Amino acid sequence: MANASESREFGNTSVGPGHACCIENGTRVNFTSHEQSPDFYVVLPVIYSVICAVGLTGNTAVIYVILKAPKMKTVTNMFILNLAIADDLFTLVLPINIAEHLLHYWPFGEILCKIILSIDHYNIFSSIYFLTVMSIDRYLVVLSTVRSKRMPHRTYRAARIISFGVWILVTLIVSPFFVFANVYKDDLNITSCGLNFPRPERFWFKASRIYTLILAFAIPVSTICVLYTMMLYKLRNMSLNSNAKALDKAKKKVTIMVFIVLAVCLFCWTPFHLATIVALTTDLPQTPVVIGISYFITSLSYANSCLNPFLYAFLDDSFQKSFRKMLECRAA
User: Fold this and answer.
1) Phi and psi angles of residue 22, each rounded to the nearest 5 degrees, phi first
2) What DSSP assignment string belongs to 15-43?
3) Could you report the per-residue pLDDT of 250-293, keeping only the tens digit for each?
4) 77 CB contacts (<8 Å, ≥6 apart)?
5) Using CA atoms, how far apart are residues 175 and 120, in angstroms rounded to an integer?
6) Given CA atoms 167, 173, 177, 179 in this order, what sign does their dihedral have?
7) How far is CA 81 from CA 68, 100, 166, 209, 296, in A?
8) Could you tell me which residue ranges the G-protein coupled receptors family 1 profile domain spans (predicted)?
9) Going by C-beta distance under 8 Å and a sequence separation of 6 or more, which residues neighbour residue 205?
């Protein structure tokens, strides 16, 4: 196996040992750097801690409400539940990333290294995949409403089976990263956790980035864009009969909510994937500006894990009512 430090790059320029946050192989990785800016050393743990606290609280609340409130057991909410589980899982392990950042080395062993990097990739793939499934579901709902047809197979049980299938698919996609994740020591004898590729390192480095770019961005985002384009086209051009002059108010609200959650997800993740394209096509020097931008991109992708609960709270009336009712029961 080649030393992983040889492939820890942003663009094609080696970062070197250290804790300048860069995006490697389609994952978000921190590097230990003795030359790291004091501002980065202080500010990043604060940002990550806020994301962790807010994300863990918000997503746990979403999971609790959906599981406990009878009225929340809908097809869309089943997908939202799994999305919240994926975000909650990531925020649970974020303190380990914070600890690595503060310690400037990886003290947790190889097994935990593999688990943490795998969960990191789970977050990358599962979020967009569940949003893709939600977009497919919205398209089918709009189509059935326009045609005044029922959807007998669209059930809560079917949504559970589909969600289970998504997790299996994501597990298969993430498995190579679990295999390549290893603890290694760099030239300064600093222990780090990263992806350790065989030779030729650069080939595997680029292949892993392309793999993530295609499966976590190009295919699902293209699918979502096609679905929403077709959805808008059908709503605009098909003549609706008296039973389907428009989507009813509840369906409209759910469709709008899914669209906004998707838009926020793309806003947070698109810079991450654009950085992958930059890394594949350019040779960037590791200047403070480049490192600062990579920190910002990483923090933005992390932030997506804590934003969704606020979107549900503002956009979903049933979620608001169920949450308030549970708080009142707790208080009583």
Assistant:
1) -135, 165
2) --SS---EEETTEEE----TT--HHHHHH
3) 667 777 888 888 889 899 999 999 988 888 888 777 777 888 88
4) 66
5) 12
6) positive
7) 12, 30, 13, 29, 28
8) 58-312
9) 7, 9, 24, 25, 197
Distances (CA, A) of 65 to 12, 28, 206, 323: 46, 31, 42, 6
Whole-number Å distance between alpha carbons of 133 and 316: 19
Query: Strand 13-14 and strand 22-24: pairing?
Result: unpaired
Chain centroid to CA 71? 27
Q: Tell me the mean pLDDT per 10 residues along the chain, length 332.
A: 34 30 38 52 86 92 88 88 92 90 89 92 91 90 76 89 96 94 84 86 88 93 90 67 54 79 90 87 80 86 88 75 71 60
Residue type, 31: F
The residue type at 198: P
